[in-house]
Inverse folding.
């Protein structure tokens, strides 16, 4: 008996719930029919045509998708919240089973034509997602939608890659003026509770303001809601991939001063690094807008470093000229020796390998060689003049007298001795002249080697001096650019907050 009573009770409860559900569905169906019976979505929902309809507009920034610097377009994912009162969609919940809220397809009700005025792509209508509007019994309508906007934004690349951008999203009605649709902002700041962090940009602030603008087409005022998107670039990617290679390439170019001048690769290294810098500069210019108002900071840095590398390459040519100047055999001027060997070498802590002083007699030989040819200069043998008509020299005659006193000498022996003396004297003169020529040639070679070494040491001092100058210039330019960018970013942030 208890089992039958339990089954009967369960069946009754199930029947009651089914009937109640059917009745509730019938109430909602009847409510929808009654609301849409005499409703015309083409008419603005206002009790009086002279009264303005208040539309509360709110925006929640969900994501910054992209910032196109070249085309100056900001792509964002936004969630829109629009609320207004429609008197024709009111009802008494007691007559419809206590229903207070219903969902109606957004295409079946009147919607405000609020658009993004600085829209840069008409495909935003295609990317909008909206399903239903939420209506309560007092006629309050809430329309929630999500849209991917591509808005025009003036990109200021003066501080790139340490820049901050201030973009705007301007929303207003396209056909209704302020006397028909009055826009009201939700708060002074935008909703960022659902914001997704970007890997490239940091959201600094999202402010809201309401403005009233008079356009040239119409005399009526047009209120608008403007959202100010203040974003800051994360510069680590560009510092690591653009600025650091530039610094390294510049330092490699400056190390060309350490390359020996005799290797023949000093100018080649400078030109190679110059071409590398040009390639990186092309990568920067491809991503920047073609603007003449503001020069990108990184572009300025590349331009200065290219000028530094070009100057270093030109100075390399100068040092090569100094290095090979000793080939001409011209001694360095006295002021060059004092400046390079005594002043700059000590200041740069250079230990030079200067040549030993050239002996005076060797210098005299070299100068005599330049003034008189060897064949024309007198020799020590010339001081002992030969007898006229092929006579014997005094020393040789003395030897012959010694021989004559021993054994006697006839006339035939005397004539042969005279011929032998002449030939022997000529041979001695040629041998002496040959030895003297070799000595003077060696002396001249030593003099030229000493001069060449002096010019090479002077080129080494100039090389080292230019290396220090260009390294200091590169570091100073890098620090000035970085600190200048930080200062300008701070000023921009202060202006953005005010």
């Amino acid at each position: 008996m208890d089992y039958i009573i339990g089954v009967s009770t369960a069946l009754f409860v199930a029947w009651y719930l089914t009937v109640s559900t059917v009745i509730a569905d019938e109430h909602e169906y009847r409510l929808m029919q009654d609301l849409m019976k005499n409703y015309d979505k083409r008419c603005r929902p206002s009790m009086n045509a002279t009264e303005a309809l208040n539309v509360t507009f709110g925006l929640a920034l969900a994501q910054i998708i992209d910032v196109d610097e070249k085309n100056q377009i900001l792509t964002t994912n936004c969630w829109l919240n629009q609320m207004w009162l429609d008197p024709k969609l009111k009802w008494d919940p007691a007559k419809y089973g206590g229903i207070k809220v219903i969902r109606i397809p957004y295409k079946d009700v009147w919607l405000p034509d609020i658009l993004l005025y600085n829209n840069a792509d008409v495909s935003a209508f295609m990317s909008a997602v909206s399903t239903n509007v939420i209506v309560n019994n007092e006629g309050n309508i809430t329309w929630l939608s999500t849209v991917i906007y591509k808005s025009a934004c003036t990109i200021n690349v003066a501080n790139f890659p340490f820049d901050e951008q201030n973009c705007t999203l301007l929303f207003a009605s396209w056909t209704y003026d302020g006397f028909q649709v009055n826009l009201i902002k939700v708060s002074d700041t935008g909703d960022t509770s659902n914001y997704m962090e970007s890997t490239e940009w940091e959201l600094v602030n999202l402010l809201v303001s309401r403005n009233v603008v008079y356009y040239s087409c119409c005399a009526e005022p047009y209120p608008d809601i403007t959202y100010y998107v203040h974003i800051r670039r994360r510069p680590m990617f560009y510092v690591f991939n653009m600025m650091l290679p530039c610094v390294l390439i510049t330092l490699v170019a400056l190390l060309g001063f350490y390359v020996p001048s005799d290797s023949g690769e000093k100018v080649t290294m400078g030109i190679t690094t110059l071409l590398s810098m040009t390639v990186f500069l092309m990568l920067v210019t491809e991503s920047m807008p073609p603007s003449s108002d503001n020069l990108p900071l990184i572009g300025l840095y590349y331009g200065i470093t290219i000028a530094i590398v070009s100057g270093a390459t030109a100075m390399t040519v100068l040092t090569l000229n100094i290095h090979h100047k000793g080939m001409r055999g011209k001694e360095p001027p006295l002021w060059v020796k004092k400046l390079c060997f005594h002043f700059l070498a000590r200041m740069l802590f250079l230990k030079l390998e200067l040549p030993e002083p050239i002996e005076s007699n060797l210098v005299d030989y070299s100068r005599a060689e330049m003034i008189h040819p060897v064949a024309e200069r007198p020799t020590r043998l010339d001081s002992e003049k030969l007898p006229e008509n092929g006579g014997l020299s005094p020393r040789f005659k003395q030897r012959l007298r010694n021989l004559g006193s021993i054994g006697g000498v006839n006339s035939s022996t005397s004539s042969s001795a005279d011929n032998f003396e002449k030939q022997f004297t000529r041979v001695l003169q040629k041998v002496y002249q040959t030895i003297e020529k070799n000595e003077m040639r060696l002396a001249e070679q030593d003099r030229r080697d000493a001069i060449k070494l002096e010019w090479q040491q002077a080129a080494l001092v100039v090389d080292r001096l230019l290396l220090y100058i260009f390294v200091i210039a590169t570091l100073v330019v890098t620090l000035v650019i970085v600190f200048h960018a930080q200062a300008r970013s701070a000023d921009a942030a202060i202006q953005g907050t005010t």
The chain is about 50% helix and 20% strand. The longest strand covers residues 53-68. Confidence is low (pLDDT under 50) at residues 16-24, 360-392. Strands lie at 53-68, 73-85, 101-105, 114-116, 132-136, 140-152, 164-173, 181-185, 201-213, 222-233.
